[in-house]
Amino acid sequence: MKVLLITSSNLRHLAFINKLKERKDIADVVLVTKKTGDEEFKKCELNHFGAGWSKWIERTRPMFCSSSVELHSDEILTRIRTINPDICFVFGAPLLKKELFSIPKYGCINIHTGLVECYRGVDSSYWALYDENPSAIGATIHYIDNSIDGGKIIAQRNTEGLSTSDSADDVFMKTCQTGFELLAENLENIMTGQAKTRSLKKRGKLFQIKDMNDSIMREVRKKTPAVLEEYLNENNSRSL
Does domain 3-239 have CATH number 3.90.79.10? Predict the structure, then answer.
């Protein structure tokens, strides 16, 4: 099968590519440029994902860069049609239009850093912390359709490895890692057409980039220690 990846060029996105590095059938990688986050965010991302293997990816993978606007241009759509991918895996890309996600024969599959019944769109783990709803922190693997994070669900999991010492950015990075592991665990079934899916019955709150601002982010980061401590201590007491 020919595999297409659509992601970005920040460290977490390169980690996504690295997770699939053993696959010999990756035909192309589209890197969509996006903001890198503030200094606190970038430091946390470097701590979780490092940068030692990024040059290896650049040397060994076919890839090209695109802006969000250019992604649906005739030039890039023609390039993708020429590749004729069987399947596409997406992480950290802008909303895909039907003219793109309908190209791969077996569809496009997205890693969403949220539980779609609770939060859709962007910054889902941050909004869960803001709402003091930590049980909604997790990752979803789903097919892309005309909705926003509303396609058929392949797998979901609450974010693993959370600690009371985690910052809000740590929670996000660990959610990314949980999504990568979910994809890896389900990859063989996806590639062989044996992955079981279920429809989304309840669509979570939808947040866009414009909904987050510096004031809200400061509040999220301030709330995080108490939210995690209560959540994790409660879970630990239940497991005794």
Answer: no
